[in-house]
Amino acid sequence: MKEYQKQVDEWISQLKIGYFKPLEMMARITEEVGELAREVNHRYGPKKKKETEDSREIEEEVADVIFALICLSNSLNLDIDRGFKSAMNKCYERDKDRYDKK
Amino acid sequence: MKEYQKQVDEWISQLKIGYFKPLEMMARITEEVGELAREVNHRYGPKKKKETEDSREIEEEVADVIFALICLSNSLNLDIDRGFKSAMNKCYERDKDRYDKK
Amino acid sequence: MKEYQKQVDEWISQLKIGYFKPLEMMARITEEVGELAREVNHRYGPKKKKETEDSREIEEEVADVIFALICLSNSLNLDIDRGFKSAMNKCYERDKDRYDKK
Amino acid sequence: MKEYQKQVDEWISQLKIGYFKPLEMMARITEEVGELAREVNHRYGPKKKKETEDSREIEEEVADVIFALICLSNSLNLDIDRGFKSAMNKCYERDKDRYDKK
To answer: Which chain A residues touch B37 with a CB distance below 8 Å?
Structure first.
């Protein structure tokens, strides 16, 4: 993710507005997650579209959420790689007996 | 992200329960975003904690959201790198005059 | 709320599609909350609009979220008035010493 | 809803902390929606609980989201009844041919 964090920082750094404040960024994340929910519902919800149609749209919404998460993380100097490693460790340690193995 | 998508897939592949259905995964993402919102509010909201205290907790919640997004993406065969590249392109093309430059 | 639950039921009852399934409805709620977040950010976020402009838009987004919550509740036979009474009781019992009084 | 808005105002008015700022309140709403998503997923998601078990828990989470929406609305002087009336009108006007009738 370090590479992605850098790319986003290069984009934001050239803008006058800069990073949003944490709660502003949180609202933006919520907005992007709402758009993702809409696409998922369009595709797998009550009025199902055809299978082939639009997982690309879901892919773009997922990326938009990640973009927003990176903005928040950059503005707070978070290291997402470190966080992710810790999340994977939780899986293998804490949750190792939480789900049945195959 | 390809590496992360692979790591998550290795973890999920060994579990009997496997990937959730898209709408189940969407609810899980919403839950994780809610936990992130709680941490951001704890830290930058009405009862501010001390600066030094807990950006690590926010870092972990960000990673948990990304973990959940990867689960959704893997189950739908999405390529997050491709989506992210497309998101960055949108920034540089569509939005290039949307914000004032420095 | 009973009156509102009835009004929504009258609207939905005449539609062929009927109530969504719970997880579909949950995704819809997430979508509506995202729209609310967008309006709140427009109004109180980084590019503040003038004070007078649009609390009406926020009002409508709040109502849309409540509409979606009522759809979920009706489909599950929930009694929102009972839930709300219980929430207010929690305030006065459980949380009574959680916040400083004036 | 006017009655509910009044009850919440009576509760908040006696607290020193008072109403949160809009973006703080928005983060709180996101948190509560996350808790609702968790309950809906517990009940209707991958590891289904028994039917009889816990729609009460969902009922309480719905009420908590509405409570948070009322806090936001009160702090911004919104009239939820007016917003809801407008939402119902949208159903009967704008959307009247959007869904098939029975």
So the answer is: 26, 30
